Amino acid sequence: MIHVHDLRKLYDDYLAVDGVSFSLHPGQICGLVGPNGAGKTTTMRCLAGLIRATAGSIEIAGGRICDSSTQRDSIALKRQLAYVPDDPPLFDDLTVQQHLDFIGRIYGVTDHLAKANSLLSQFDLQNKRDAGATTLSRGMRQKLAVACAYLYDPSVLLLDEPLTGLDPPGIRTLLQSIRDRAASGATIIISSHLLAMIEDVCTHLLVMQNGKAKYFGESADLRSQFPEAATLEAAYFAATSDHSSYAPLPGLSAIDPLNSHHQVTSQSTGVYS
Ligand SMILES: Nc1ncnc2c1ncn2[C@@H]1O[C@H](COP(=O)(O)OP(=O)(O)OP(=O)(O)O)[C@@H](O)[C@H]1O
């Protein structure tokens, strides 16, 4: 569902993402973690097609998210993914209900009103139905953005710091909804600094540092590499410590999905402008 091979992103002469590769399949939930400036948002934005990768390939739902040969992004492909940034850009002039109506219409969601009602109820936004976006709290904005993303049932969800600003019931609802979406076949990447919060929900982890993938694999395997680490947070500190005895294999990690699950062919490796 998501295959990323040797992704690189240069901002001028600064290499923000440096040769990141990983693959995820339907039903998998990947926690994207790493220190500030590690390259998490840049990676997400490349996957979402919002910024052009400098090199490497990104395949989502069987198609390339960007194709350097045509310089065109596939609209059909983008219908299959949703990216929710950490500070969701809502429309100032629209109410909560109007956001959902708008998304429902442009994505051609059948029965979008009923779905919108259900999402408003799920995220406890019913009493804000007629509120303008500018009057919403930080957490409400986050919930509305997630509801808009869920409305068209994308098969790939990219959630950048989605827990920021949510209250404890909101966090619980969101994490359960992520589990439910994955159980229905979605592939989900969730970036977060709240390791204890995402620990139970993630099947996989991508640990980034200085633009590189320090680890990619099943969550349980990261813990098993650091048996002395009682929590995911402790394993994270061990994996990102300069003194860590953990040495990532060339190009990737001990659990290399490109070798164990899906071989990316040289044909699928493109270089973007
Ligand atoms: N538009 C840009 N132009 C130049 N440099 C950028 C730009 N966007 C990000 N960077 C740099 O790229 C690096 C990675 O940034 P990115 O936002 O991807 O990190 P992050 O892992 O998401 O960090 P955080 O956890 O703080 O959100 C940082 O050094 C940042 O300063």
Report the span from N to C terminus. Answer: 24 Å
Structural class: alpha/beta
CATH H level, superfamily name of the domain at 2-87 and 155-240 = P-loop containing nucleotide triphosphate hydrolases
Q: Helix content range of the residues, please?
A: 25-40%
Count of DSSP strands: 10
- Which fold does the CATH topology of the domain at 2-87 and 155-240 refer to? Rossmann fold
Q: Which ligands does the model contain, each kind named once?
A: adenosine-5'-triphosphate
Query: Can you write the helix and strand succession as a string?
Result: EEEHEEHEHHHEHEHEEHHH
Question: How would you write the strand order of the largest sheet?
Answer: 6-7-8-3-9-10
Q: Compute the gyration radius: what is it?
A: 19 Å
| CATH class category label of the domain at 2-87 and 155-240 | Alpha Beta
Overall description:
One of its GO terms (molecular function) is ATP hydrolysis activity. This is ABC-type transporter ATP-binding protein EcsA. Keywords: ATP-binding, Nucleotide-binding, Transport. Residues 2-235 form the ABC transporter domain. With 273 residues, the chain is α/β, with parallel strands linked by helices. It has a domain at 2-87 and 155-240: Rossmann fold, CATH 3.40.50.300. The protein is 32% helix and 22% strand. It has ten helices and ten strands. The strands form two sheets. It has a six-stranded mixed sheet, with helices on both faces. A four-stranded antiparallel sheet has the order 2-1-4-5, with helices on one face. α3 runs parallel beside α5, α4 (112-122) runs antiparallel to α5 (138-151) and α8 (219-225) crosses α9. It starts with a strand and ends in a 13-residue tail after the last helix. The relative contact order is 0.19. Bound molecules: adenosine-5'-triphosphate (ATP).
